[in-house]
Amino acid sequence: MELQGSCHCEKVKFTVKSHAPVPFMRCYCSICRKVGGGGGYAINILGQARNDTLKVEGMEHVKIYRGIHDKSLPKEQQEECGNRRHFCGECGCMLWAFDPQWSEWCYPFASAIDTPLPEPKRPNCIMLKYKANWARVPGPKEADLFDEYPDASLESWHKKNREYID
């Protein structure tokens, strides 16, 4: 499935192919909740970065941010995340994340996608160990809850839940 996305000011537009377009995973880590908006989490989708399926118009407006893993450590012990969060330098809208360690994938922010997306049957809430005390989390009857990362990947969740599109 081809996803179309853009920033709020529309100076950046992009398309990316995805076999796993259901926005099911809410990340509550300190970096995602800061860049993801006011809900206390961010939602990313799995996109294919390989074979040039990510096409960007307005790349000159795109900026990149790399978060710090643990800001509570002394400055000399802090490490940048491998994940690079791409955002519009004009309106600040988060667009997609990319980590060279998994160069075949990119992770568009669900909020930047303009294509109608399927609703997840049962979301995963991850990195709950790091969530803000005010962030609301669904109960175990509505969502699968994880203190850190789950064992399943984005791709395997979509295959297991029959949401994988060839």
UniProtKB/TrEMBL annotation:
Q: Does the keyword Metal-binding apply?
A: yes
The record's listing under Gene3D superfamilies reads: glutathione-dependent formaldehyde- activating enzyme (gfa)
Residues annotated as domain CENP-V/GFA: 3-131
> Which terms in the Gene Ontology molecular function aspect does this entry carry?
carbon-sulfur lyase activity; metal ion binding
Which domain of life does this protein belong to? Eukaryota
Q: Which InterPro entries match?
A: CENP-V/GFA, Mss4-like_sf
Its keywords, alphabetically, are: Lyase, Metal-binding, Zinc
Family stated for the protein in its record: Belongs to the Gfa family.
Name of the featured protein:
Glutathione-dependent formaldehyde-activating, GFA
**Native organism:** Glomus cerebriforme
